[in-house]
Amino acid sequence: MKKKVIVLLLTGIFALGTAQISMADYTIGSKGTEVRNLQKRLNVYGFKVKADGNYNWATSKAVKQFQKRKHLAVDGIVGPMTYKALMGKAMVRPAAPAKSSSYHGGLSLGIDDSRVEWHKAGPMSDTVRAITAEAQKYVGVPYVFGGTTPRGFDCSGFIQYVFNRKGITLPRGADEQYLSGRKVSVNALEPGDLVFFQTYDEGVSHSGLYLGDGYFISATSSRGVAVATLKNGYWHDRYIGANRVL
Predict the structure, then answer these.
(1) Distance (Å, rounded) from C-alpha 101 to C-alpha 185?
(2) Integer Cα distance of 71 and 64 in angstroms
(3) What is the model's pLDDT at position 92?
(4) Which among 36, 63, 87 is the end of a domain?
(5) Band (206; pLDDT cuts 50, 70, 90)
(6) What is the pLDDT, as a whole number, of residue 30?
(7) I need a surface site. Which of 98, 143, 199, 240 has the fewest CB within 10 A?
């Protein structure tokens, strides 16, 4: 019996050694919003797990089944390759943002508070008023990776849907939307402008709709469709730029 226990312990040690778990990987004991997103994606693929944000044995088992289906190393750990296959995007943990504007990948990241002047929304055209009103109808709609309907949106799917409802066609991806229209400075922002951010990966990875006075609306992985501020906090530090398409 003792011999069997020793063999099992050694097997576990060697398994951990070959897995080469990094601090960025998701494994048993991991918790948070991103774990919940992983669990939701596993459900989309037909692996029934509770999306509670706790990476438990049931989640690990589902990950192993997914890895086997995708011909990946079957270890129950969501590392870069499994994350990319499951989520459809690279696994990058953003570093803590600088408090002032910095430069990343050719794009200025963050808002320089010494130069910004927030102002309340002035008179709006009928089109702008209709689009901003349409967007705010969906506050509270849950985030769904790849979602493009009121059953669930991702960020760029939400923007595309709202504009399409008013007869305006926009590209599907946030990075493609960033190339639409003409660039406007943060001091020139008006309701109806598109605002862009760097989140999980370098470059444009999140889009929203500006509402005025430093506020915008977008579909977020943590809160679903919600209004947030550019004046401080998470989005302030990850702001990249804005376009005017109207």
Answers:
(1) 14
(2) 10
(3) 64
(4) 87
(5) very high
(6) 81
(7) 98
Same structural domain, 133 and 163: yes
Instruction: Kindly report the backbone phi and psi dihedral angles of residue 15, in degrees, each rounded to the nearest multiple of 5, phi listed first.
Output: -65, -40
Q: CA-CA distance, 18 to 23, in Å (whole number)?
A: 15
- Compute φ and ψ for 11, nearest 5 degrees: -60, -45
Q: Say if residue 231's pLDDT is above 60.
A: yes
Count of structural domains within the chain? 2
pTM above 0.85, yes or no: no
Say if residue 31 is in the same domain as residue 113: no
43/129 same-domain check: no
Instruction: Evaluate whether residue 93 is within a structural domain.
Output: no
| Phi and psi torsions of 43, nearest 5° | -65, -40
Domain of 30 in residue numbering reads as 2-87
Q: Is the dihedral of CA 152, 220, 206, 54 positive or negative?
A: negative
Report yes or no: 105 and 202 within 8 Å, Cβ to Cβ. yes
Same domain? 112 vs 47: no
Residue 18's pLDDT band (cuts 50, 70, 90): very low
Task: Name the region of 2 (left: φ>0; alpha: ψ -120 to 50; beta: rest).
Answer: alpha
Highest mean pLDDT among 41-50, 96-105, 121-130, 160-169: 160-169
Structure tokens at 94: 């953003």
Confidence at 203, pLDDT banded by 50, 70, 90:
confident
Q: 155 and 68 in one domain?
A: no
**How many other C-beta atoms lie within 10 A of the C-beta of residue 200?**
15
Round to whole Å and give the CA distance between 175 and 203: 8
Whether 22 and 127 share a structural domain: no
